[in-house]
Amino acid sequence: EVQLVESGGGLAQPGGSMRLSCAASGFTFSSSSMRWVRQAPGKGPEWVSSIDAGGGVIRYADSVRGRFTISRHNAANTLYLQMNSLKPEDTAVYYCAKGFADGPRGQGTQVTVSS
């Protein structure tokens, strides 16, 4: 059974930074592409970033490119999202998910950007 557990969310000020982590189990993490998706209050899911199994192919949504960095530690079965220069519009529940474009996701972690 695929299990994805996000952590690291919380409250940040505009311009601040935060790093999200996702602990993966129940599948071969090192062979799986992964992605981050977010959902803001009252809105549908928004794809944020994807990374392939080896970390050599990375894609970002225009809204986060240059501010967010996706990475992974295959030996630790962990996916990361480093978020810098945070904006209030980054406020959302952030989910990690298996697969480059589709696949199961975790329960999410709340990120709130507010002064």
Helices and strands in order:
Layout: E1 3-7, E2 10-12, E3 18-25, E4 34-39, E5 45-51, E6 58-60, E7 68-73, E8 78-83, E9 92-98, E10 109-113
Parallel strand pairs: 2-10
Antiparallel strand pairs: 1-3, 3-8, 4-5, 4-9, 5-6, 7-8, 9-10
Walkthrough of the structure:
The protein contains no helices and ten strands. It has strands at 3-7, 10-12, 18-25, 34-39, 45-51, 58-60, 68-73, 78-83, 92-98, 109-113. 31% of the residues are buried. The model has no long low-confidence stretch (mean pLDDT 97).
Order of adjacent strands in the largest pleated sheet = 2-10-9-4-5-6
Strand content: over 45%
Order of helices and strands: EEEEEEEEEE
- Which class of secondary structure composition applies to the elements? mainly beta
Number of helices: 0
> Quick check: average pLDDT?
97
Spans of at least 5 consecutive residues whose pLDDT stays below 50 are none
The count of DSSP E runs of length 2 or more, i.e. the number of strands, is: 10
Cα Rg: 13 Å
Distance between the termini: 40 Å
Oligomer: single chain
Large-scale geometry: globular
Percent of residues in helical segments? under 10%
Biggest sheet statistics? 6 strands, mixed
